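We treat protein structure as text, and this decision shapes the records that our systems exchange. Because each token names a local backbone shape, the row as a whole describes the fold. An entry from our holdings is shown next, in its original layout:
>
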Amino acid sequence: MLVIGVTGPAGAGKSTVCRMLARRPGIGYVDCDRLSHDTYRPGGPAYARLLGRFGEQILRPDGAVDRGRLAKLVLSDPGAREALEAIVHPLVMEEVGRLVRRHRGLGTRWLLVEGALLLSSPHVDRGLFDAFVWLSAPEEERRKRLLSAGLPWDTVERRLLAQRDLVPPKVKGLYVLDGSAPPAQVAARLLELLTGLEEGNPSA
């Protein structure tokens, strides 16, 4: 099984493309955003630590973490963002490792692990991955996609600003794909890359 990290900035099409490919037999998909949100739930492994660091201001009336309020807080404060990542990312990586083992046991051919910060967070165990794919798209295109997904304008602008310096690092095993094309085309290009990686002859 090949474990492929799919990364890049918000609005580049990571989730859409991964979900399309995960419909195919033999392709698994892990969404790190969903895993991180699972850690926030009351009683979850990050819940008490989040309250200890950020206080009850991040809670909804029902006691659940208000992810929008937390996101607004950390997008405007680099120190708060680092604190959030230090709490949540190690927990997410533990679950990613468990899911990698599970998919190996299931005989999965390719496991796509999607996360915007896979190559920028110091808490990511890159040894779990065989390669990384970076999806890129112009900022205006990403803005349109995020707005069309229903995100508020101010949230989109804060997210784009926070990720403005998020560029593909120069690391071995990283392949950059243009994510601005229609999703079906991007998915086909990614599938071609996966086949090449499996055969030892990747191209991007």
